[in-house]
Design a protein that fits this description.
Chain A is of the alpha/beta class. Chain A is built from nine helices and 16 strands. Chain A starts with 6 loop residues before the first helix and ends in a 17-residue tail after the last strand. Chain B folds into two domains: 120 residues, 2-Layer Sandwich (Potassium Channel Kv1.1, Chain A), CATH 3.30.710.10; 28 residues, no CATH class. A three-stranded mixed beta sheet of chain B has the order 2-1-3. In chain B, strands 4-5 form a two-stranded antiparallel sheet. Classes of the chains: A alpha/beta, B alpha+beta. Chain B: This is Skp1-related protein.
């Protein structure tokens, strides 16, 4: 980014013959100052100008007065917090266009000197450093990161959009709760090695995802977790997770659950379907669909007669199902329909992709006597 | 970015007349008005783009003749530029400006603010955005002290909760003797 050179300001000063409209305070000679009474413009104009500021300048401006702080507050900023071992950084996006990455450099341990600093490619000295230095004397990364996040969320209207955590990288001294990110839209946990139970528990207990929780790391089958921690709309588990059972899945409050590389077989899936069929739907209103990838393909699936599964009837529902967060329609032509105990709610079981994938989805509209059931129209 | 300007001579059929707040008339090519969403909508609503429709002068009560002259200069320069895209990163984030734009906006701040108001009134997004960007470029990158000076913000007794440094009180009240920016010029004398 090329900065407007300071010397330009001299050149755009009003000619001396003009009567200055904005006289400088007596302490500041006019010849050396160009006054811009920005804060006296209508709010719409001020916000438009501020939308071109970078984040550090916004924080700087907010610190100058109460009014400027109020003007800066509505500048919507999205934060992405990445904790990848030693590489910990914030990605900050303002108004869907200006994206900045702030890296946190580890300070020297066992010293009182504060060396943990934010680094940005094009800027060495950042104003926000002063704020952090006034708040924490720690040389560790988490307090620095936490204070930065707190500053951003308090001064600006900030949304922690995404938290990415690479496991096996969290030091025992620094706990994830020190980040103090209580809630975010998307929480992504990734890693190659099997995750320690305490580490996974620490993350799930301290950071709540509202939209998407993705666990893409092998986990222990002994892991125990309160299903109430799973309240996000979409849950994705991409690696072996022996601790996930049909009962646990059913108690989760997620709308869409996707499990890849699972240990589930058809029996486990049918067990889930039975629970849904017999449950009190008021307690499971949020649930929309379950997708499980089998380890071994199911060639001749047998669905228990007791479920009352029936082939697709064009009059009762649409052919295509639109899954939450997925633009691709699922063809449920070969699915088997099941009616819940309330006699109104229809769901479909579909085993597709040559027997590798299991799908169980609840149709959004209830059965009526006059018309068919809703769902998605043909794409 | 620069665009080659084809030579076209405006004819009475493809012009409209706009009248500034001080009563001066300007003949404006319809092609130029496409950059102003306000004028474009007005022309579309009154069907002034049709040759068989009588075109009454359009009064622009919020814009002086000096501002209108300046705006026409902008419209003529950007006559053959592609349509403005709000989310075009090329336009939105850079603090690099064309030499022509630098010279065009090499005006006192009060004139620039009034031009900003006119751009907003006529809804000329490229001009509005450019002025905002150029104003931002004159403030960003400065130290807190410099920003305080440039924006003329006075010191308050309270300390900032975040930094511990003194919070400044805005000097936007009339007590500081600064003249108000006239964003809505008074109507022309009858």
């Amino acid at each position: 980014m090329t900065r407007w050179p300071d010397r330009k300001q001299e050149s755009i000063s009003p000619p001396s013959s003009r009567i200055p409209l904005y006289p400088a305070p007596s302490s500041v000679p006019m010849s050396t100052t160009l006054l811009i009474p920005l804060l006296r413009l209508p709010t719409l104009f001020i916000r438009s100008v501020l939308s071109y500021f970078d984040i550090d300048d916004l924080i700087k401006l907010a610190s100058l007065s109460k009014k400027s702080c109020e003007l800066v507050k509505p500048m919507k900023v999205e934060l992405k917090v990445n904790v990848y071992g030693e590489d910990r950084h914030l990605e900050i996006q303002m108004n869907s266009r200006n994206t900045e990455t702030w890296k946190f450099k580890q300070g020297k341990p066992n010293t009182t000197e504060i060396t943990t600093r934010i680094e940005r490619k094009d800027k060495k000295d950042m104003f926000i450093d002063k704020w952090i230095l006034s708040k924490t004397k720690s040389a560790d990364l988490y307090p620095t990161m936490a204070e930065t996040i707190r500053c951003l969320t308090e001064v600006l209207t900030c949304l922690v959009f995404e938290v990415n955590i690479k496991t096996n990288s969290l030091s025992k001294e620094s706990k994830i709760e020190d980040l103090r990110v209580g809630e975010c839209s998307n929480l992504m946990i990734i890693g190659e090695k099997c995750m320690e139970n305490s580490e996974l528990a620490q993350i799930l207990e301290n950071i709540s995802a509202t939209e998407l929780l993705s666990i893409s790391v092998p986990t222990n089958s002994e892991f125990k977790c309160n299903p109430n921690h799973f309240k996000c709309k979409i849950l994705k588990i991409d690696r072996k997770g022996g601790w996930v059972t049909p009962q646990l899945l059913f108690e989760m409050k997620c709308s869409r659950i996707v499990i890849r590389d699972s240990h589930f077989d058809l029996k486990d899936c049918i067990s889930f379907v039975w629970r849904w069929k017999l449950c009190d739907l008021k307690k499971h209103e949020k649930f929309e669909c379950l997708e499980i990838q089998f380890k071994d393909a199911v060639r001749n699936p047998v669905i228990p007669e007791g479920l009352g599964a029936q082939k697709w009837n064009k009059k009762t529902r649409n052919q295509f199902y639109l899954r939450l967060g997925d633009p691709v329609y699922l063809n449920c032509q070969n699915g088997l329909d099941i009616i819940q105990e309330d006699k109104e709610t229809l769901a479909t079981i579909l085993i597709h992709n040559d027997g590798h994938d299991f799908f169980f989805g609840v149709w959004p509209k209830r059965l009526t006597t006059t018309g068919g059931i809703g769902g998605s129209s043909r794409p | 970015m620069s665009c080659e300007e084809p030579t076209t001579s405006p004819t009475p059929e493809n012009n409209i007349t706009v009248v500034s707040s001080d009563g001066k008339e300007f003949l404006l090519d319809l092609k130029l008005t496409e950059q102003s969403e306000t004028l474009a909508r007005l022309i579309s609503n009154f069907e002034y783009d049709r040759t068989d429709v009588k075109k009454d002068p359009v009064p622009l009560g919020n814009i002086t003749s000096a501002q209108m002259q300046k705006i026409i200069e902008w419209l003529q320069h950007h006559r053959y530029y592609p349509k403005w895209e709000q989310n075009d990163i090329h336009y939105s984030t850079s603090f690099t400006f064309e030499t022509w734009v630098e010279e065009y906006l090499n005006i006192p701040n009060n004139e620039m603010f009034e031009l900003l108001n006119a751009a907003n009134y006529l809804n000329i997004p490229r001009l509005f955005s450019t002025i905002c960007r150029i104003m931002a470029s004159r403030i960003t990158g400065k130290s807190a002290e410099q920003i305080r000076t440039v924006l003329n913000i006075k010191t308050d007794v309270k300390n900032d909760v975040y930094t511990g440094i003194p919070i400044q009180e805005d000097s936007s009240s009339s007590e500081d003797g600064m003249s108000e920016i006239s964003l809505s010029p008074s109507p022309p004398p009858i």
